[in-house]
Amino acid sequence: MDNVFYRAVNKKLLEVDRGEGIYLYDTDGNKYIDACSGAAVSNLGHGHPVIIEAIVEQAQKVAFSHLSRWTSRPIQELGDLVAKLAPGSLNKLYLVSGGSEATEAALKMARQYYVERDGQSSKYRIISRWKSFHGNTIGALSMTGDKRRKKYTPLLLNFPHIAPAYCYRCPFGKCQDTCQVDCALDLERTIKMEGAEYVAGFIAEPVGGAACGAIVPHKDYFKIIRQICDHYDILMIDDEVMAGFGRTGSMFSIDDFGVIPDMICAAKGMSAGYSPLGAVIAKEEIFNAFKQGSGIFVHGHTYGGNPLSGAVALAVVKTLIADKLVENSRTVGAYLLAQLQEKLLPFSYVGDVRGKGLMLGVEIVKDKQTKEPYPVKMGMAEKLTVTLVKHGVVVYPGTGNADGENGDQFLLAPPLIITKDQVDELVAAMTKGFSEFAKIIG
Ligand code: PLP
């Protein structure tokens, strides 16, 4: 019975039996609100009849064919639909099977782009930020800026990281009134130090996810980033693996910042957990460089763009639009944020409640005035999330920080189908869990 090598080998896991809407049920019949959509994946909730029908229909036709020889109607239609939804000229969909594969593909695509465009190139580095997560493969981990990378150093690629846009703990000691968006200018400083001739791209999550609990940058942050990338001829890679396809209340979270990136990495919400899929959505100019250059992107994963995942994603994205779930994410998300701020901020150990749409984060602290965090070793956010499970709420497990000391957050990302009544149910259960936790920590 116990021959599975789980990632947290000593952790007791819940045993899932079935799911329905925003709820999951364990094999003992207990009901839980899936308040993190797994890992911000199940955006349409569980057991959606339209998606189940699409799965059955496609599986009866053909589940798998390989992109080395075959394309299929579902992936072509998906490409057309995504091209309409993505900003600017980002209309070329390169399909893979998940988020890490997507960021790896973007890394390689950025490097090869300059070779295709210029004949040869020394541009190979990707700059990223601390308090970021871009995936678990070694290339993606090299770009990641949190504790997950520590056990695997030295990483294959020694990529530079810049300061995060972390307003609650501004790395430059500023506050709202004195902010000059130094965290964006840090990119220029780093490019100059590294030499722009060695830098191929800058990657960032517009709203940070797994490594930071939904931090939202200053409204001008990405405008400055875009200008710097243009000035130094560096590709701006937008990692929307978690935030994309409606999670933050816009189709892509970058849409709210008024800039157009050069590539978007997507996964999770694109197929909403019904079949694995990921993608790089590249701008026309990048595609053309490959078309007019060698004609081949040296990168392929066996399951990338299989017809079954294509049909699922097509049905998911169509449902997202038809059921106005991006709008729901925006309005119900704003309501959830306001409710959580009202009910949770009064607890002495809650430092910050933040986020955008239905991508929200809670940061707990030892001292609210000084913002002193609990030592990450105490795993306070993780303990709190275990208490919430007892109250029937499953949130994303607690995350720490790159230096392993500063900050202790968890993420809240319920399915985008959640209603206001269900938000009330969620907030009531969370408030009970937070009260119990207050007693536990004294
Ligand atoms: N990028 C971001 C922003 C993510 O949040 C994640 C996963 O949480 C990844 C990349 C990696 O995706 P996957 O777990 O599908 O490989």
UniProtKB/TrEMBL annotation:
One of its GO terms (molecular function) is transaminase activity. SUPFAM superfamilies: PLP-dependent transferases. Its cofactor is pyridoxal 5'-phosphate. Keywords: Aminotransferase, Pyridoxal phosphate, Transferase. It comes from the Bacteria. Pfam families: Aminotran_3. Transmembrane segments: none annotated. Belongs to the class-III pyridoxal-phosphate-dependent aminotransferase family. This is Aminotransferase class III.
